[in-house]
Amino acid sequence: MKILLILGICAIALTTVFAQGKADIPFQIVERGTNSGEKQQGLKVLRTERAFEELLKDKSEDHVKKLSKQVDWQTEQVVVVFGGEFNTGGYGVDIKRVTNVDVQRLLIEATISKPRHGQGVTMAFTTPYVIIKMPRQVASVRVKFLTD
User: Fold this and answer.
1) β-bridge pairing 105-113 and 41-46
2) Element (H, E) at 82
3) Secondary structure, 3-state, 109-140
4) Rounded mean pLDDT of 57-86?
5) In the chain, % of residues over pLDDT 70
6) HSE-up of 105 (CA within 13 Å, CB side)?
7) Using CA of residue 128, residue 93, residue 50, residue 28, what is the dihedral sign?
8) DSSP state letters, 39-68
9) For the sheet containing 129-135, what is the strand order?
10) Is 49 exposed, middle or buried (CB count within 10 Å of its CB: 0-12, 13-18, 19+)?
11) Whole-Å CA distances, 88 to 16, 37, 81, 110, 128
């Protein structure tokens, strides 16, 4: 009886996920920072170590190697999400979720964190970003910035 109940609950949960067409994709943050140089919000998908190293060519060689070693380039890919340009420090990019919209499309839901009221910030232009790794996908990837 308990087994049937558990199987029924699992079936309902799976049906709900597939009916919505969305399933969460696991991801891990590799690095975040405040100076990507990208003035527009967006993303870049990197599926090779060479492309990753090219994107980070302005960083130190040791730093790039350290980051690159965190990725299994045979089974994983990297996505860099850019938050755009801000006129002060204190901003960041947070990833809330990565979902499979359908077989051909992934959606990254992101937010921009803002400095707290009264927080001391750098008085310089910043371009926050976050680098995540996830299982390799052939799907197209897009980012949607959520508002608070």
Assistant:
1) unpaired
2) strand 76-83
3) EEEEECCCCCCCCCCCCEECEEEEEEECCCCE
4) 93
5) 85
6) 8
7) positive
8) -SEEEEEE-SHHHHHHHTTTS-HHHHHHHH
9) 28-33, 129-135, 76-83, 41-46
10) middle
11) 43, 14, 19, 20, 11
Region for residue 2 given its phi and psi (left: phi exceeds 0; alpha: psi -120 to 50; beta: otherwise): alpha
Instruction: Give the per-residue pLDDT at 13.
Output: 46
Q: What is the pLDDT of residues 112-126, one digit of tens each?
A: 999 998 888 989 999
CA–CA distances in Å: residue 63 to residues 66, 68, 95, 111, 145? 5, 9, 23, 26, 28
4 has a pLDDT exceeding 70: no
